[in-house]
Amino acid sequence: MESENALQLFEGAESTALVCLDHEQYQKLIVPQLTDLKYKVHVGLYEDDVQLKLRTYSYDVIVVYENFKGSTLATNPVLQRLVSESAGQRREHFVVLLSHTLPTNDSLAAFVHSVDRIVNIADLANFNAVLRRGVTEHREKYHFFHSTLKTVQTM
């Protein structure tokens, strides 16, 4: 799966997703659902690989497994990298945290962990619907912000 995605380049108008998930059984559930939603997907299996991809591409959706490479929520290198981004960069991504312990769509927990949406591992079959709803809400929330920012930048 990684070799297929490693060579894929993104076109400017395509919706893009980075899946930071090192468990194949979860990848097999997530990647097809993202593909069904017309996302072009890269899979990050290693910390260095994910860091390089985040520097190289701008992703619309980033899916992060809470225990990526044996980490915890407090030590997750991908979440730490995303939190360190500027506010403008951070608003460009829709970050989904895959969790064993946190409930799906828990807004307070999502805020606490600096992500946009939480999906519990038990709800992976519904990932498509949760993501679609979350991305729609995200676009609506930031539409005015992005349009105002574009107007200011052209002045």
Q: What labels describe this entry?
A:
155 residues, alpha/beta, five-stranded parallel β-sheet, 7 helices, 5 strands, 48% helix, disordered N terminus
Instruction: Output mean pLDDT.
Output: 86
Approximate shape: globular
| Poorly predicted runs | 1-7
The arrangement of helices and strands along the chain is HEHEHEHHEHEH
How many beta-strand segments?
Answer: 5
**Physical arrangement of strands within the biggest beta sheet:** 2-1-3-4-5
**Which structural class do you get from the secondary structure elements?**
alpha/beta
Major sheet summary line: 5 strands, parallel
**Residues in helix, %:** 40-55%
Q: Report how far the terminal alpha carbons are from each other.
A: 45 Å
What's the tally of helices? 7
Strand content: 15-25%
Instruction: Calculate Rg over CA atoms.
Output: 15 Å
Structure notes:
This protein is α/β, with parallel strands linked by helices and about 160 residues long. It has seven helices and five strands; from the N terminus they run αβαβαβααβαβα. Strands 2-1-3-4-5 form a five-stranded parallel beta sheet. The longest helix has 28 residues, at about 125-155. It is globular and about 50 Å long. The protein starts with a helix and ends with a helix. The model is unreliable at about 1-5 (pLDDT under 50).
Write the layout of secondary structure elements.
Elements: H1 2-6, E1 15-20, H2 24-36, E2 39-44, H3 47-56, E3 61-65, H4 77-83, H5 87-92, E4 94-99, H6 107-112, E5 117-120, H7 127-154
Parallel strand pairs: 1-2, 1-3, 3-4, 4-5
